[in-house]
Amino acid sequence: MKKIKSHFQFSNQQRNGIFLLLIIIIALQCIYAFVDFSDEVLLNNDQTDKFRKELDSLRLIEIENNKPKIYPFNPNYITDYKGYTLGMTNEEIDRLHQFRESNRWVNSAKQFQQVTKVSDSLLNEISPYFKFPEWVTNPKTQANNYINSFSSHTKSKTFEQKIDLNQATANQLQKVYGVGEKLSERILKYRNKYGGFIADVELKEVYGLVPEVIDRIKNDFTVKTPRTIKTYNLNTATINELVLIKYIDYEVASNIIEERTLRDGFSSFEELTKIEDFPIKKLEIIQLYLRL
Length: 292
Fold this sequence. Notes:
Blueprint: H1 2-6, H2 12-34, H3 45-66, H4 80-86, H5 90-101, H6 109-116, H7 120-126, H8 134-137, H9 149-152, E1 163-164, H10 170-173, H11 181-194, H12 211-220, E2 221-222, E3 232-233, H13 239-242, H14 250-263, H15 283-287, E4 290-291
Parallel strand pairs: 1-2, 3-4
Protein name: Helix-hairpin-helix domain-containing protein
Pfam family, one: HHH_3
InterPro entries: Endo/Exo/Phosphatase_dom_1, RuvA_2-like
């Protein structure tokens, strides 16, 4: 009995230690019960909605950026792959190819739908990118019946009688009916910009000169001392050489080489007009830099 009692007898130091231990245990229990140790962060609902909208916006932008870009094109030259990327079915593409095989041309968005039977929604999506030749979209009006009495009563001058267009002055140019001070300045400005004319056809590059006035200029002027330029063989030129030519970009140059490979070479410059996206109205200018 004495031995059992001795187990429950403590010194003052031991009692203090036990009391301190009880206080620590109680304190830890209180902390565990009333303090939230979770890592969860509570967000304001407005902030959460704002953050979600920003993510949705960024996601839409990324989707839009990943969409294939569409550049202006002539729908008459749609290939199978081009039609597929535009969303056309095989049947719609085949209808267009059959129409073109009959040597006919699509000249409007409405006619394109009639031939291919594409839906209104697809037509509205791709028709803004249709690019037809200028003679289709902006046909020339009939020339007026007025004929300059001076030009109607004079014979065409010979090459020797004409003035060198690369040596002509503004006063000499202004003697041509329809060429005033502004047009003569533009002609000289173009000539000085490029170091002279290569050929008479470059007059078409001068802004404001209509065909009738160009014909009158060519009656009295012609290029006798053309500026020196580098020409390229159409059947051997590389893509890097073709892009150096005015009005030919990398896309057109790539199409030229692709068509050249399919044809096993070009036999005439007119064959270039069959190439997709080729600037047909600038063919005469482009020809100046090419040879066969």
